# Entry
Amino acid sequence: MTYILLKDRGLLHLNQISVNYFYFLDLKLVQFRYFCTFAIDKSNIQLMTLVIITIILIGYFLIATEKFTNVNKAAVAIFVGTLGWILYICYGSDFVMGQHAKDYASFLDGAPASSAAGKQYIFQNLFLKYVGRASEIVLFLLSTMTIVEILQNNGCFDFISQMLRTRSGKRMLWTLSAITFLISANLDNLTATVMMLTIMHAIVSRQRQRVIFGCAIVLSANCGGALTVIGDPTGLVLWNIGAVTATNYSLTMALPCLIAWLFPILWLQRGLPRRIETEWITMPYRGDDTNLNLWQRALMLFVGIGGLWFIPTFHNITKLSPFLGAMCVLSLLWIVNELMNRKLMNADQMIQRRGPRVLQYGVIQMILFVLGIMLALGVVRETGFLNRVDAFMGGIADNMLVVGFATQIVGSVLDNFATLMSMVSLHDVAETGSNLALYGQNGAYWKIVAYATAMGGNILCIGSMSGLALMKMERIKLNWYFVNVGWVSFVASIAGMVCLWLLV
# Structure
């Protein structure tokens, strides 16, 4: 393809250029030439890019201040994501010619360029690409949350309550923290947090003590979620785009996550008395009336949790998207659930509980939030703005400690998923070149930003969905959290980041 820039006798404004694209195809020494002319108005592109970026920034501000504005961040994310693409397609042809000129010319295949053709190209080649990536994450989350719902409905996690039968404050703290850490490494950390907070709230009677235990649960959930690629949507995104592999990611993250987890928990135990007051009451309605035997619950737990452990192996063998493995596990567990409960419930009850009640308001909010953020950052990427940001940062972006520190600070205020997606959007996974150590598969950049965003949620409660769940349930103040927990978590996370930097 040959690009020739022409000045159209002053008929175009100074901020406009006319680009002639010639496509030459040599077939049996006969040249077929397709000539298309496109006019790109740079001022309109710049103006629309500025409008889109402004809307995204306002959305980020509303997400960061959700606790104070009471504007649901899921609604904000969906709004800015959809509005961004609507505004983008208004000047779609101009954006396409600026970012995807070669591909667009191939798409036209000699046909004349038009507004309708530009919109069709955007829909087929750009928009659906980002929808597909977001859908993979959403379907994985939906599958894992449904698995948790089935296990909870059948009392498969009731063993946790039995393990917490103690009046020793330190023992209960470490038991809660360790269980949350392990569960969060295998399940979504928000799901793990809500489940553990519910169990703890029913056992511990004093509000002051519940706050301390709740902080420990949030810290453990964020640290445990950062340990594996399936423990948090941030790691799942990196795994899904091929930035990391499951085994390498977990081995590298193990020691930094343990450092960031252990020191704050040691600090929290100072605020607990030797003996605590507990209430051993019957757990609230779980969603069913079953009475499964111990071996039946153990079998379901093995199928659900063991199946999740198998997903990385499934992905390595088949090279299919991880969400397909999660859906296979879900379908198998669902069948086992039906078989186990068929003889224990009457027909009417069975009909009512054939579908797990996973699609609850909170879960839908999380899924829509993830979808909205990925769409919003997708449209920002297509404007070319992120390329200019990366060029502006220059050599600073290659200093992993600086990148990690800045990401952690932003992640403490902004949602950790939104923060990670912003950082991930700045770079593609490198396959060749001199920067493979930073941006290639299992590169330092991906692990640093994943760790930093996860630990940023430990500095302030508003930085993670787990922290927001704690604030809502126990009504703690943001300043109290930082004074008593946040600054210790920050120091510990910096120590873990230095350790991670040395490892990568």
Remarks:
- Residues 157-287+357-503 form one domain.
